[in-house]
Amino acid sequence: MKKLLAILVLGLMFCNTSFADSLRVVDGDTININGERIRFGGIDAPETNFWGQKQACYLNEVEVFCGELSKEKLKEKIGSNPVSCEREKNKDRNGRTVAECFVNGESLSKYMVRIGYAFDFVRYSKKKYAQDEEYAKVNKLGLWTMKFEYPWKWREKIREENK
Q1: Which of 94, 113, 115, 161 is the most buried (most CB within 10 A)?
Q2: Closest CA to 40 of 96, 99, 90, 105
């Protein structure tokens, strides 16, 4: 029994999975677990704050802060459920941990894309979430009911404006 316990403890120390004690949703593709900022790999969600600006979408000509909507959808999905994450080896260019995170065994990345509040970030995903994005688009879910700019294009525009 002691050997089994020792193996289990060592395995948990060296595995690449984390479990949340303290969790905060930053936006639709980023969370903070126990003080560590984790970016969901392979997806991109509208921005809640990028260089002091919120990304807007338009629903029937009405401005909607779609980054906030996306963040709220992720918060609702997580609720009070435990979150586990499988980290990638490398951090992103902003020094954030890149991971795929799960609630009750379901990928949060896949969920966010499939309900239309995040996009397949093909540059990094190799089309891992392409079918989920197509599902959301065809069924006019989430942001697909609005006029929007893809988050990567919106950030590029903001960078250009701030040169």
Answers
A1: 113
A2: 99
Within 10 A of 141 (CB to CB), how many other CB atoms are there? Answer: 15
Specify whether the CB–CB gap between 67 and 115 falls below 8 A: no
| Contacts of range 102-107, beta carbons closer than 8 Å, 24 or more positions apart | 103/77, 103/78
How many residues comprise the chain? 163
- For residue 115 the two structure tokens come to 């309900």
Positive or negative torsion for Cα 73, 75, 81, 86: positive
Determine the Cα–Cα distance for residues 109 and 46; give it in Å rounded to an integer: 14
Domain spans, the chain: 15-161
Q: What is the pLDDT of residues 65-94, one digit of tens each?
A: 999 999 999 999 999 999 999 999 999 998
Cβ neighbours, 10 Å, residue 53: 15
> At CA 134, angle to CA 141 and CA 150, rounded to 5?
75
- What's the whole-model pTM score? 0.86
Which of 102, 117, 144 lies closest to 48, judged by CA?
Answer: 117
> Collapsing DSSP states into helix, strand and coil, what is residue 47?
coil
The bridge status of strand 36-40 relative to strand 30-33 is antiparallel
Q: Tell me the C-alpha distance between 100 and 47, whole Å.
A: 19
